Amino acid sequence: xLVAAAVCPCPPLLVPEVAAGAxxxxxxxxxxxxxxLGVLAAARPxxxxxxxxxxxxxxxxxxxxxxxxxxxFGVDVDVRLGSATGAAPERExxxxxxxxxxxxxxxxxxxxxIEGLGxxxxxxxGRCAETGRELAGRADRVALLVMGDASACRTLKAPGYLDERxxxxxxxxxxxLEAADVAALGAIDPALARELKAAGRAPWQILAGAAHESxxxxxxxxxxxxxxxxxxVAAWS
Length: 237
Hints:
This protein is an alpha/beta fold. It has helices at residues 16-19, 27-42, 95-106, 125-136, 166-179, 182-186, 190-195, 201-210, and strands spanning 2-8, 47-53, 60-62, 67-69, 78-80, 114-119, 142-147, 218-224, 231-236. The protein has a seven-stranded mixed sheet, with helices on both faces.
């Protein structure tokens, strides 16, 4: 069953080398992510699964030890999803899972085996819920690291330009994460989320499916919209 979850944003800008001179602007977000991962460690899980959206080539499961890189963003930074296992990886982590792997490396995660799962941002809510239930059943004590941004339409300079629906959308997601409200997360409109470029919708709904039988409480650790993109950090335990 699900015993804990951390929800973190997944911009490569979280990696200071990628952000370069703008790195200090996300120091508070990085600190909140570290706090959320501390909640995962305290739950003593048997298995940690990192979930994030991915393009077609990055979808599906990723075993422990899978490498990832930020070289595509112009920096010489490589990561690995947990410790190497000796098996030859078939492919690299998608960006969302690479950011998750970087966060785990940064906090020195060594508390449980790790796996990754890349999903389509178009995965329909019912399938998200089913996927979450499957993940929760993988071990007696499962933890999730859920990677995903909120809307990308909060300002005129945002990637999706300004959309007046973005701030209320993000506020409702933040409320649901803080309250561990699985019904509200499961009810997020995928069409609206896509219009607002909210990459976290499918991972959040996978979390909702995983937590449907787990009496978890939530805490919202960070909420801001730097660069016009909503970033939320939450912990469930």
